[in-house]
Design goal:
By secondary structure, this protein is mostly helical. It has helices at residues 2-13, 22-52, 78-92, 98-123, 132-152, 213-234, 240-259, 262-268, 279-297, 306-323, 330-333, 335-358, 370-376, 381-401; strands at 158-159, 165-166, 172-174, 179-180, 184-186, 194-196. The two termini are 42 Å apart.
């Protein structure tokens, strides 16, 4: 692992830098470079392999313009994202870091579920793919693993009432506060913006907080399942899911940088999470992989990510947000995913309700998820994607602003 070589050089020769940026930032820069190269250069080889194996998309007739031309386009392109992320991470990250381990497990776990779904669609010619209950079961099990690890693992800690002394040269003179286990998280847009899940069970009496996992773990399961399915629903037109996800992951990288840096966290008066700075290496690799994949997935797409990619993306985004205690920002930051999911729920719910009460099912949207509604209205998919990206950037800016607006 190149991580250990760079760690030795940094300690012995003060390379590749120290102080405000330092070792982690250098490795993060290396991972994004490597992931971009892997996704763009070797991604083409993966696409050619998929074409040779005739692993093409099975298109359902939804009556959308340009739909027929996409039939046969290689799918399972999520493999490009997974490989372009994991290879740089294994090279440059500290793979013994509990957060890195958790994200690797998340990516592989969701990647396997998505791969099985794509395999059934492609080779078994079953357009429905893996049964929904099995997808949900896989997401629930992952949420259980993530929640239990974050709650019980001894290395998952945060600084209690951090009062670190930093001098004018941005060097830490003294660190105060102990590393503690906690179920605290961040609530956006309020002054005292920390909330403890244990408070939801504190009414049960003294010692009740010891059972906070009864609240914490189900919440993690809900978040992982919701975001993963949201990303899956967003993957419907060329470049939409990959571009939106790149914006989201980049924003989470900003939060990770400040939450894992004792200087920035002290300045911004936010919780300092011990060891979480290492996530920056994974996140930059993930951003590079998404942007590199977008090179081939932008309109007109030469490869689709399939559920191999979309389920994986959603799962990883959810776990990153949970680790850095920003999961309550997901409805804002992942607003595109949220809107796509809500549009489906509203459409199905309203159709069933009107069919039961009026005898005829009615629809709110021309088609759900939301991006198909705009396609039905005659918008070209490139315009839809671009406008969704713009909204995604606006939501990302609002999310970052919450660091100080409270």
């Amino acid at each position: 692992m190149l991580y250990y070589l760079f760690e030795y050089l940094e300690k012995e020769y003060q390379l590749p830098g120290a102080g405000l940026f330092g070792f982690t930032t250098f490795r993060a820069a290396m991972t994004i470079l490597f992931s971009l190269i892997i996704a763009t250069v070797y991604g083409k080889k993966v696409i050619l392999f998929l074409q040779r194996k005739q692993i093409g998309e099975q298109i359902r007739d939804l009556g959308l313009q340009g739909q027929e031309q996409k039939a046969g386009t290689p799918t399972m392109g999520g493999l490009i994202i997974i490989l372009a992320t994991l290879i740089p991470v294994l090279l440059f990250a500290d793979i013994l870091n509990i957060y890195i381990i958790l994200l690797i497990v998340t990516m592989l776990w969701m990647g396997i579920i998505g791969f099985v779904d794509d395999y059934i669609k492609t080779f078994k010619k079953d357009k429905e793919g893996l049964k929904g209950r099995f997808k949900i079961l896989g997401q629930v099990v992952l949420g259980l693993i993530v929640g239990a690890t974050l709650y019980f693992h001894p290395e998952v800690t945060m600084r209690d009432h951090d009062k670190t002394i930093i001098n004018a040269e941005y060097k830490v003179e003294q660190v105060k506060g102990a590393d503690i286990k906690s179920t605290r998280t961040t609530v956006p847009f309020i002054k005292n913006n920390e909330f403890d899940y244990g408070n939801l069970i504190a009414w049960a009496g003294e010692g009740a907080k010891d059972y906070a996992w009864l609240i914490f773990i189900p919440m993690i399961i809900l978040i992982v399942t919701a975001v993963s399915n949201g990303a899956n629903l967003t993957d419907g037109i060329d470049g939409l899911a990959a571009g939106t996800s790149a914006i989201i992951v980049f924003t989470l990288g900003v939060f990770t940088w400040v939450s894992g840096n004792i200087i920035f966290s002290d300045y911004l008066d936010i919780m300092y999470i011990t060891g979480v700075g290492e996530l920056l290496v994974f996140i930059t690799a993930f951003v590079g992989a998404l942007v590199g994949f977008l090179w081939y997935n932008a309109f007109p797409a030469t490869v689709f990510m399939g559920d191999t990619g979309s389920l994986t993306i959603g799962g990883v985004i959810a776990v990153i947000a949970i680790i850095i205690r920003k999961e309550l920002l997901i409805p804002v930051l992942c607003g595109i995913f949220f809107a796509e999911s809500i549009s489906v729920m509203l459409q199905v719910g309203y159709f069933k309700y009107t069919k039961k009460t009026l005898g005829e099912g009615k629809r709110i949207f021309l088609m759900a998820p939301l991006h198909h509604h705009y396609q039905k209205r005659g918008y070209h998919e490139s315009k839809i994607v671009t406008r969704f990206w713009i909204v995604g950037v606006m939501l990302a800016i609002i999310t970052v602003i919450t660091l100080k607006v409270r």
